[in-house]
Design a protein that fits this description.
It is a single chain. The chain is built from 17 helices and 27 strands. By secondary structure, the chain is α/β, with parallel strands linked by helices. The chain has an 8-stranded antiparallel beta sheet with strand order 3-2-4-1-10-9-11-15, with helices on one face. The termini are close together. The mean pLDDT is 93. The structure holds 6-O-phosphono-alpha-D-glucopyranose. 6-O-phosphono-alpha-D-glucopyranose (G6P) binds next to helix 8.
Amino acid sequence: MCGIVGYIGREDAAPILLKGLKKLEYRGYDSAGIAILGAGGLTVRKSRGGIKNLEEKIEAELANGTLAASIGIGHTRWATHGEPSDINAHPHTDLSGNIAVVHNGIIENYARLKAWLQKHGVVFRSETDTEAVAHLIDLHYNGDLLQAVMESLIRLEGSYALAVVSRDDPDRIIAVRKESPLVIGKGDGENFIASDVPALLEYTRDVYYLLDREIAVLYRDKVEFYDGDGRRIEKNIAHVDWDAGAAEKDGYEHFMIKEINEQPKALTSALRARIQADAGQDAQGGVPVKAVNLEEIGFDSSWAQANRVVITACGTAWHAAVIGKYAFERYSRISADVDIASEYRYRNPICNPQDIFIIISQSGETADTLAAMRMAKESGSRVIAITNVVGSTLAREADLVMYTWAGPEIAVASTKAFTTQLMCLYLIALQFGVLRGVLSGDELAKSIKALEEVSGQAEKILKDKETIQRFAARHFTKSKVFFMGRLFDYAVSLESALKLKEISYTHSEAFAAGELKHGPIALVDESTLVVAICTQTVLFEKMDSNIKEVKARGASTLVITYDDVNYFDQSADEIFRIPRLPDGLSPMLSIIPCQLYAYYCAVQRGLDPDKPRNLAKSVTVE
Ligand code: G6P
């Protein structure tokens, strides 16, 4: 977590750094700081709390020009080592205050380094691992900052994206990364660094993605690159097409509601160009047949030789993975396993080169997810990445990449990334089914038609958001909310419960409805809201019994089902209806009212859904 920024150019650095940090606040917001190199030398300002606190603290200095400088670095923190406080906030400096460092990641050998540095007379002021880096660079400093950074890196274990400036080397910023994201933005007479692209969009779309251990040295008019062995290298520029507005709230109160509303567009983008309209003619002749076309990502028939699909991810992406498992079983009749990446990496999994791994990550930078991907590759398996971030580590290291094309997702609670991950999974599962010869032409045609209609149907649900808003206004005080469903609906329940707990702090859980009698029902009473997701026709009867069981124990019930279903009219207190889809594809729609419910509950509770306590968008450390 944490976000870092850097600027070198001809403009006033501090306001640019603050703006950049605000764009990265989703990565952490428990303290923030900047270090600038101006006429007065190296000045560090930091503060506990969000960027706003920092801004207030330095308001007067910004106004009177004390902080004027054209080079600087900044940081927004999500605490790992040491509580959130002014002292633990970054940037950290060496003892003389010559060198300042910002860091995203974890220095795993920091305790050993600290002991060693203390033996050399260093007195630590903070509890952070990062402070050790500043002292280490100082110890290696012999008139050349780049050399000092290179020598220090040899001693660092763990993950880092670092930016370093020095009073004695005032015309450059040194940046380096290993297992934490870092992007270099190339401007005209100015250059930037940031943990993520949205912080750069206002200034440039030309970026360099650093690989692990690569070093960038930013000057005003150029950027030089070095590999991990200190050799000069050339890097290609990448162009980002996101428009700057995509990373703004665009009149919405929060990023989360903006992103919920962007789902129809995002679903269209995820699908676009992946359906071939004229793939032949039907048996009667004349009517053109559509097909899934994944040539764009390099998915050919060799992939269909697999014995098994293993899908691995964390958080919301893991919930998409659970749905993916059901989709692969249903549409491709292939054995599919699903794993939480942080679990997978520490067990002793049995895998072989015939397995195919699908690794899902919105950011493409989640540490556990990347570790699972690397294990899969080491075992000789091929890896398909589903990610939203072009140039992310996952995208670079996987064998095939399927982008979700959802546009930047800023809110911590993932929404449009989830539904577009589902779209990608369905497309792969359908194509697998075709290549394996197990999916009938009819079912393929029906499914493609449904995928093409999903975006419009999502729009319809969003038009009815006031219904959910009113529902939230009546129920936001409920102390327990349970989501239940079976199979696909169970997976949607998992995601719904996560959304609600992470942003509204309501105790919420998901149950496979058949498990109700094995424990969860003991928790059900008048203070409980049970949301039953019922979109699989063959399971309606079972779900209806479960709804009656919780109602009999005093729970209020909301059923989410299709607009042409009356099955639950007697048992449910309230029903929210979504447009009909073939049952297995319904998660792309049934999750939307649950996202809205979580959002409106948070708002009703006076919370900021974009900044849930203790959470960060990208978990780039273990
Ligand atoms: C964090 C975020 C979640 C996200 C998860 C996995 O916990 O708060 O929204 O689902 O990380 O992130 P990824 O970028 O790998 O999808």
